[in-house]
UniProtKB/TrEMBL annotation, chain A:
It comes from Alloalcanivorax venustensis ISO4. It comes from the Bacteria. Residues 76-260 form the ABC transmembrane type-1 domain. Its main location: membrane. This is Sulfonate ABC transporter permease. Belongs to the binding-protein-dependent transport system permease family.
UniProtKB/TrEMBL annotation, chain B:
The keyword Nucleus does not apply. GO terms for molecular function: ATP binding. The keyword Cytoplasm does not apply. Keywords: ATP-binding, Nucleotide-binding, Transport. Pfam families: ABC_tran. CDD domains: ABC_NrtD_SsuB_transporters. This is Sulfonate ABC transporter ATP-binding protein. Residues 4-241 form the ABC transporter domain.
């Protein structure tokens, strides 16, 4: 028998081992839920599977009695729009500033200390300021995402730009490139796949800021809904919403990863 | 007029003298190999030729004028690693110089101009034996093929001086021999002036027209930095006997031991 440290799971074994914790968690939940509902049929903390499916039916597939809209759809679109705009603007700022500070020492000297300082401000602490300045509308929520993840993106991309081997920058100059050409033909194309992976990393925080902002001031959105139904202890709605948000986050991450592999084969091949 | 003229060149970093009293003239079309122990200023010399370092004292002249203090198209370079751009295919790597020249802002050309550049690039790649790898990315090429690509990329710009910084140091011996032949062949056909840095003495002994040995004539084992390296041998390649190789090897080895200790 081989030492434990040298033992690998086969292809089937890997799937089985990966699924096992999920199955255990599901079974534990069902057992606990059953036990609580046995003691008190009106218990709201651990709803049964049937109340989940009722809640999902109500939120996703039936028009709301009040507005005639499909609640889950409206919430999802609103949240994804805020997240998309916030992340896209952050990525754009991160790309421009990151490339400038990463490849031009004079820019780095001027801007880096400011960015470092900004990145240390806890974004949620200035959320009230954002609501005061930008009102309770969409802008404040998008701004929170931008303020939350842009400093990280700038610093990460600056570092990635600095990691481009000096040899290549010298090489570009011996081929006759000026500064602008070095940035557009060397730094920018090499940074793009790294931007995608930085964005994937920052999506977690982006969701956090989105849900926090929606919880405080919104009229629709996934985060708004969760905090709204919390008042009625509606676990049958909250848990499916959390699962749905998790799925959306996973799908976004997966899509970005696949896009990067398809668009930048040289980046993923060389790793 | 000599292509490269070195007049009483010194390079110091603070207290440490790296190179001292370098004097030499290199004519157009010469192929100079520079050998020596690590720490004897070979790379520093190359950096001064490139323009990323400047001499502390003395002059380094290209066609009678001080060498520009930043890299530009007069001097082509092939490094040991990272010479080619990983995000471009082989043919795009070679087309790059032409694209940069004809489009200052976009750095890209289209249509007929692009086809012409592509034809030139394909010809150049064929001359280094890469006609089968046009559309491949560098990571899909072997180490030797990557260096062939780097040569093609540098040569299409027709640089005044071609600098090679241990270009074959990371290659297998058999492939290294092929590369030697390729470099000699390109040098003859294209009338290049070449400086090649290498730590392989044997390589310096039969490649090119002239070999420089960078070594410290005076060496204080306690403070190796107090005296710089000089060109201790300036030999025409092909006229030296075995005895010279041995004495050079011994002297370079003993310096290396002191510097490496």
């Amino acid at each position: 028998m081989k030492k434990l440290i040298n033992r690998q799971a086969g292809p089937v074994g890997r799937w089985a081992l990966g699924l096992l914790p999920f199955v255990i968690l599901a079974v534990l939940y069902l057992v606990a839920s059953d036990a609580r509902l046995d003691a008190n049929p009106n218990d709201k903390l651990l709803p049964s599977l049937s109340s989940f499916s009722d809640a999902i039916e109500r939120m996703a597939f039936e028009p709301s009695k009040r507005s005639g809209e499909y609640t889950l759809l409206v919430d999802t679109l609103a949240s994804l729009q805020r997240l998309g705009i916030g992340v896209a603007i952050s990525a754009l700022i991160g790309l421009v500033v990151g490339i400038a500070t990463g490849s031009l020492p004079l820019f780095r000297a001027g801007i880096s200390p400011l960015v470092t300082g900004m990145s240390l401000v806890p974004p949620l602490a200035i959320l009230p300021i954002l609501f005061i300045i930008f009102g309770l509308g969409e802008l404040a929520k998008v701004m929170l995402i931008i303020i939350g993840i842009t400093p990280f993106l700038i610093r990460d991309l600056q570092q990635r730009a600095e990691e481009i081997p000096t040899e290549q920058i010298i090489k570009m100059q011996t081929l006759g490139a000026n500064t602008w050409q070095i940035i557009t033909r060397l730094v920018w194309p090499q940074i793009m796949p790294r931007l995608l992976s930085s964005v994937r990393l920052s999506l977690g925080s982006a969701w956090l800021f989105l849900i926090a902002a929606e919880a405080i001031a919104a009229t629709e959105g996934l985060g708004y809904r969760i905090f709204l139904v919390r008042r009625y202890l509606a676990m049958d709605v909250i848990l499916p919403y959390v699962a749905w948000i998790t799925f959306l986050a996973f799908a976004l991450d997966f899509a970005l990863k696949r896009y990067s592999q398809w668009r930048y084969p040289w980046f993923h091949g060389a790793q | 007029m000599a292509a490269i003229e070195i007049k009483n060149l010194w390079k110091e970093y603070g207290q440490d003298v790296v190179l001292e009293r370098l004097n030499a003239k290199v004519e157009e079309g010469e192929f100079v190999t520079v050998v020596g122990a690590s720490g004897c200023g070979k790379t520093t010399f190359l950096k001064m030729m490139l323009g990323t370092e400047s001499p502390t004292r003395g002059q380094l002249l290209l066609d009678g004028k001080p060498i520009p203090d930043e890299p530009d198209e007069t001097r082509g370079i092939v490094f040991q690693r990272y010479s080619v751009l990983p995000h471009l295919t082989a043919v795009e790597n070679v087309m790059l110089a032409g694209e940069l020249e004809s489009s200052r802002w976009l750095g890209r050309v289209f249509g007929g101009k692009r086809r012409a550049l592509r034809e030139q690039a394909e010809e150049m790649l064929a001359s280094v034996g890469l006609d089968q790898a046009l559309g491949k990315y560098p990571h899909e090429l072997s180490g030797g093929m990557q260096q062939r690509l780097a040569l093609a990329q540098a040569l299409i710009k027709k640089p005044r001086i071609l600098l090679l910084d241990e270009p074959f140091g990371a290659l297998d011996p058999g492939i290294r021999r092929d590369m030697h032949e390729l470099v000699l062949d390109l040098w003859r056909k294209q009338d290049l002036t070449v400086f090649m840095i290498t730590h392989d003495l044997a390589e310096g002994f039969f490649l090119g027209t002239r070999m420089w040995v960078f070594d410290k004539e005076r060496l204080d084992p306690q403070t190796p930095g107090s005296y710089g390296a000089r060109i201790t041998y300036d030999l025409p390649v092909g006229n030296s006997d075995k005895g010279t190789l041995q004495s050079i090897t011994q002297s370079v080895d003993s310096t290396a031991r002191v510097l490496g200790a």
